[in-house]
Amino acid sequence: MEMMVLTRMKRGSLFDRRAVLVGISLIPVAALVLLVSVVIWMGFRQTGGVSASYSLDAYRQLFGDAFTYKTLLNTGIFSLVTLAVALLFGVPAAWLVERTDLQPKEIPQTLMILGLLTPSFLSAMGWVFLLNPRIGILNTLITSIPGMEWARINVAAVPWMGVIQGLGLANVAFVMVSPTFRVMNPAFEEAAKVHGLTFFRILRKVTLRLAYPGILAAAIFIFMSAVAAFDIPAVIGLSNRVFTFSTLLYIQVQPLDGLPRYDLAGASAVLMIGISLLFLWWYFHTLKWGHRYAVITGQSYRPRQVELGGWKVWAWVFLGTYFLLGQILPLSVLVWNSLLLYPQVPSLSSLSQVSLANFRALSIPQLLIGARNTFILAVSVPTLTLLFSVALSWVVVRSKLRGRFVFDIFSFLPHAVPHIIFAISAAYVSIFFLRSFLPVYGTIYILLGVYVLVWISFATRNLNTALIQIHRELEEAAAVSGISLFRILWKILLPLLGPALINTWLWVALLAYRELTMASILATTRNLTLPATMWGLWLSGFYPKAAAVATLAVIVMIPLVFLYWFVGRRILAMERIS
Amino acid sequence: MRNGLIGLCWAMLLVAALVTKAYAQREPVQNPKLDQLIAAARAEGELDLVAGGGTWGEAEGVKIIQDALNKKYGLNIRIRYAAGPAMPVMTNRVMETHKAGAKSDTDLLVSNARPVNMVLGKGVTRSFAWREAFPYFPADTIEFGGQLIRFVDVFNGITFNTREVTGKERLQRLDDVLNPKWKGRIASTPYASALYFLASNRLLGYEKATAYVRALGRQIGGLIRCGEESRIASGEFLMLAMNCGNYGGEDYARKTGAPVGVTILEDAAVLDSFYFVVPVNSAHPNVATLLVGFLMSKEGQDILSRVVGWSSASVEGTPVNREYKEMEKKGVKVVRFTAASWAGEEGQILNRATTEFQKILAGR
Questions:
Q1: Which of A303, A531, B80, B321 has the fewest Cβ atoms within 10 Å of its own Cβ atom?
Q2: What's the predicted TM-score (pTM) here?
């Protein structure tokens, strides 16, 4: 009898604490419901200044135009190539760093995010200088070899745009898949080895299959990122009249003449939400069998690393090729152009014009204001995102709450809605609904709120995957021993989630640091960020000055990122020992 | 006698000096409207400007304008600036904040002629007796009863790479752009900048303009934004047909030394306009009004011209004013488009042409 009462009491307290986690999850979900509803509402609203009417015109116009389908085809090819290239480089790189004895790991981890330190519109310009059919440095080098004219790369062809975007998103695959490999129990692989399976067969049949939820989550995220990608399609595609969905949308939302067509943008966003729901269905189907991928159990958890031996050289060659193509080359072009008054292809005559004039001409007070706001966002956004995401992922993966899939749908949807639309939706909500009791419009808090909501999709993908890999028996054992839910979270789950948390925090911090689209829509004089300053310089025609700001930011950020990885890995190692 | 004359001259000089001094001292008394505005602006103390990147010449440009305004009126105003969305989006934002009863993000809206129509007659604009405070205001720059101030005029034309497009290949007429030599090597804008003006009955008319844009659509290699002069300078594209105003290329070449030039076509000499609007929901309307007044003076126009390359054709002695006169002297017909051009029958043609030409250029 006493035991029954005790169990009930424990259940009761567990229930209360679950309610707290559900409550925390409900905050972002409610905000997302509101923002997504506004996006859908925008699709029906025809504006004529102050007056508005409602109709299906935007949908008719969107789906009645053959160009929409041509653009969708371009977007599909672009996104698939992007996905293939990103996984081709990102997944093996994650495996090499996390599952092998390759040392030092901080170098590839730091180099992987190098490209993230510069806004992508600047990197896109770098690719124009590298691969433009007329002036591209690489094309000039290739075609200078007799008989190699055929090898000239047309960077504006949709597949080539996908390759470039894929190189840029390979680090997303790396960051999303790394935690999966890091916590993987090698017992399965060892068992396969004992049974005589070859290395590649083990990789295919065991390692990759166990990492499947992580790779799938990364693949869906990358595919949707490619669908919504703006900078490469805008800078490279548009300049050759190759439209993707995002560039078509951008012209509707940010016209230089005429009124912005938010109705068309809303209708387009609904289409993208539809596509993402299809992917989510697939993802949920995988989650349903989540227990099959649980590799961290209470019985044994001893991550061990594969010894590469003589393959180390080839591993570095592979990583080096990626770093050179995906990170160092575009960054080098950026640095080169920061030293010139106007962009030029490297030559002896342009070399004579190299100077620090762009750096000297920068408005330091303006940069400091932007840097301060960006720093605040880069620290607070990932912290809040992780707080909400841990609660959301626990509700989705661990709780038995009815309708928990709704939480996951809404936590993923922001990724399907182009950020520019989300920012417009946030502006509407803050101006019309929140103004009287939560006057966040025009402040840094609106950026904080929107950034957190948008990147919950990324964080929950990472944490869902990591949680799937941790067997329930650990929590069940702790619960039976009378340990409270929060203590289970603190003492068991969070340490095991450590690699995922550390990766996700850094990644979201970097996304917040470089975010531009939403910042430009919600920009006021009180929430100016560093990327918005670069954007302003670029729009003014001063690409080299914008490149100078980006170069300064890279110089400041690289040591910080290296330090982060260095400290992060040591904290994890200490936790494992303890 | 001689001493008497010298004495008389000295007396006259003294009287003249006293009169001048008295006049100078009386100037503020003669313009109480301006004095009142200056006092109100002093009380507000600051100004927020949010506009599409490049509009104000970025932080450096804003600092120059701020210092000049303060010096002119003996103030200590602080101007804060942020690069925001494009002009139509900002115009829409001002409307939305007004509708919601909120303060506008920007104290002074800069908008181009087409979207600025949206604010007319909606109670969004702050009315002001401009010429009472600033008698030098050219009358024609005050439009729609003072709701709009047409502060800048821009000639639309061709921006080109001066190394690749040399003297003998001078671009003078619309057809010069269609020279097969340039095929695939020139760019236009995704928004068909200035090409829609060709559809006006004052220029080619809708049918001929459509035929021209179709030919141009076959000629271009791609689409770039106005403000991407760097892509002309680098040789990625040899020219941009047509630009959003000659100021862009001129300003870029002046500030960077890049091989970029601009030209106005003799058969399409189009003069487009940009506007100032002080929104009623501006947080600092008096500073905004004072800034408008200052920037409409010759001194203000010179500063605008220096920081962004902008000036008004209606203010004597400005670069665009001189260009305008030169065109007239050469017998070139300059066709001016203002906010009013986007309303009425001509507005319908221009709106239709904008939609259609954007499709053609996009290859739709």
A1: A303
A2: 0.79
